[in-house]
Amino acid sequence: MYKATRAFINDRQKFAKFSVKLVTVRQVGGGAEAGDATSGYTNAHRQIDRERNIKIVSGWLVMPYNRMLKKTEIRQHWWNIDANSRTYFDVSPGVSKECEYVLDMDMAEYGITHFDDPAANVCHAVYLSDGGYTMVDRIFGELFYKPIDTLETAALFKKVF
């Protein structure tokens, strides 16, 4: 487990009702290419199958530490679980095999409760650098950055403006 993954889980869990944890995810691909900020959600949503007990889950992709930029990118992401076999899988193409998946179902619950389109209202990513976090939001394809003090669930849905 990456040092950033451990720190992020610890810092997020303080604000989460559900367990925030590292999970093993089988990358199967086959979904649509990442054309916008919600394509991961769209890919996972298309896999939902009530008869086969396939559900959507929310969380984060923790990228390897970037030594040049001195930060770790932690992207918000959606994937699926086969609830019968209790195995996770991701159909989104192009996800690095080096990233770690962190399950965070509070993101899904909060998003679905408060927004018609949860994926369009959650932040794009969080950067961890020198122990501090910066929220990254994508608005009309442009990235905006906002330092944040905590990883409170609601704060991760607020737009930078």
Number of helices: 4
- Summarize model confidence as the mean pLDDT: 89
Q: Give the number of DSSP strands.
A: 9
Total number of distinct structural domains: 1
User: What's the Cα radius of gyration?
Assistant: 15 Å
Structure description:
This protein is α+β, with helices and mostly antiparallel strands. The protein has one domain (3-156). The chain has 4 helices and 9 strands; from the N terminus they run H-E-E-H-E-E-E-E-H-H-E-E-E. Strands 1, 2, 3, 4, 5, 6, 7, 8 and 9 form a 9-stranded mixed beta sheet that branches. A hairpin with a 2-residue loop joins strand 8 and strand 9 (142-148). The longest helix is centred in the first third of the chain and has 11 residues, at 3-13. The radius of gyration is 15 Å and the shape is globular. The termini are far apart. The relative contact order is 0.21. The model has no long low-confidence stretch (mean pLDDT 89).
Which characteristics define this entry?
161 residues, alpha+beta, 9-stranded mixed β-sheet, 4 helices, 9 strands, 20% helix
Layout of helices and strands, plus pairs?
Layout: H1 3-13, E1 21-23, E2 25-27, H2 39-46, E3 54-62, E4 72-82, E5 87-90, E6 100-103, H3 105-114, H4 118-121, E7 125-129, E8 132-139, E9 142-148
Parallel strand pairs: 2-5
Antiparallel strand pairs: 1-6, 3-4, 3-6, 4-5, 4-7, 7-8, 8-9
Q: Outline of this structure?
A:
By secondary structure, the protein is of the alpha+beta class. The protein is built from 4 helices and 9 strands, in the order H-E-E-H-E-E-E-E-H-H-E-E-E.
